[in-house]
């Protein structure tokens, strides 16, 4: 965080882009470190679904955050959470909630919808019914190099299948609930890892959070939370579980809590495949 703030002051940075964990690092930096940072810096968040708490923290710092979403197969950023002037009248928490959605299509994208992957029909725009985000347009890829089978699978039904599961709202905006491979199925109930992570990020001791499925003899799978704590923070697994119980249905509460630095890519994206491997040896706690 120090190097980023120093660069902002030295070079008069006006625009930058980063993954949610990078922005979260800035939000959680000591106040003295933020002194003298140019006002009104415009930031873009991409690479993973951002928690509303991070977006709220960015606004409190005076940064103007734009939230975009996409995949390499559809150019990169292919949707944007376009803000409305009316949102300025809402409280900061509600603005952050709205801005945490993945938004609407870019102008160059012909169409993006949340479709039922079985029927290829749009899901109800009720903010609850889950489907898969699918793209169509001339900035979508032509296909995977020398892999016609994967290409055919990705474009089944004439749409590019993102693999991201989402709900759509009455205003047309959609919000990712999870990657299809990251959904946790516990006792026949679907649990969104992103929903659990959003709650974990609101704990004052948590710097970074990731939730994956852990095999369970009784329930099939249960949520396993990996947490990176803020410097100097002290918290127990039981504290984390108690926090989650205040905000989540019982079956969504993590049964395993592991503290430590999270594995990340060079751009700050958390490597969940590594955490899934670790979850196999993580010990569950009794909740």
Model description:
With 287 residues, the protein is α+β, with helices and mostly antiparallel strands. It has 3 domains: 104 residues, Rossmann fold (3-Layer(aba) Sandwich), CATH 3.40.50; 70 residues, Luciferase, Domain 3 (Luciferase, domain 3, Roll), CATH 2.30.38.10; 97 residues, ANL, C-terminal domain (GMP Synthetase, Chain A, domain 3, 2-Layer Sandwich). Helices cover 25% and strands 28% of the residues. It has 9 helices and 14 strands. A 5-stranded mixed sheet has the order 1-2-3-4-5. A 4-stranded antiparallel sheet has the order 6-7-8-9. It has a 3-stranded mixed sheet with strand order 12-13-14, sandwiched between helices. Helix 8 links the parallel strand 13 and strand 14. The mean pLDDT is 92.
Strand order of the largest sheet: 1-2-3-4-5
Helix/strand structural class: alpha+beta
What is the total number of structural domains? 3
Given this structure, which CATH class of the largest domain is correct?
Alpha Beta
Q: What level of helicity do the residues show? A: 25-40%
> Any idea what the shape is?
globular
Overall number of strands: 14
Average of per-residue pLDDT values: 92
Order of helix and strand elements from N to C terminus: HEHHEHEEHEEEHEEEEHEEHEH
The main sheet comes to: 5 strands, mixed
Please give the oligomerization state of what you see. single chain
Q: Radius of gyration, rounded?
A: 19 Å
> Unreliable runs, pLDDT <50, ≥5 residues?
none
Architecture (CATH level 2) name of the largest domain:
3-Layer(aba) Sandwich
- Strand fraction: 25-35%
What is CATH's topology name of the largest domain? Rossmann fold
* Termini separation: 36 Å
Number of helices: 9
């Amino acid at each position: 965080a120090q190097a980023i703030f120093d660069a902002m002051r030295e070079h008069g940075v006006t625009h930058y882009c980063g993954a949610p964990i990078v922005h979260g690092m800035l939000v959680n930096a000591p106040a003295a470190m933020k002194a003298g940072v140019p006002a009104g810096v415009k930031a873009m968040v991409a690479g993973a679904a951002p928690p509303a708490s991070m977006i709220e923290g960015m606004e409190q710092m005076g940064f103007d955050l734009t939230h975009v979403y996409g995949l390499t197969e559809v150019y990169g950023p292919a949707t944007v959470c376009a803000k409305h002037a009316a949102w300025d009248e809402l409280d900061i928490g509600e603005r952050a909630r709205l801005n945490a959605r993945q938004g609407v299509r870019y102008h160059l994208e012909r169409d993006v919808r949340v479709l039922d992957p079985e029927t290829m029909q749009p899901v109800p725009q009720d903010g609850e019914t889950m489907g898969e985000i699918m793209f169509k347009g001339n900035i979508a890829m032509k296909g995977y190099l020398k892999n016609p089978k994967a290409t055919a699978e990705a474009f089944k039904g004439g749409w590019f299948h993102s693999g991201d599961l989402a709900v759509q709202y009455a205003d047309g905006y959609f919000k990712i609930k999870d990657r299809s491979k990251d959904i946790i199925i516990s006792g026949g109930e679907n649990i969104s890892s992103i929903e659990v992570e959003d709650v974990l990020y609101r704990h004052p001791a948590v710097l970074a959070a990731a939730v994956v499925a852990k095999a369970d003899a009784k329930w099939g799978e249960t949520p396993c939370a990996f947490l990176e704590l803020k410097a100097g923070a002290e918290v127990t697994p039981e504290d984390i579980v108690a926090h989650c119980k205040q905000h989540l249905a019982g079956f969504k509460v993590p049964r395993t809590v592991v503290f430590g630095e999270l594995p990340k890519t060079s751009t700050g994206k958390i490597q969940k495949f590594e955490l899934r491997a670790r979850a196999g040896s993580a010990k569950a706690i009794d909740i």
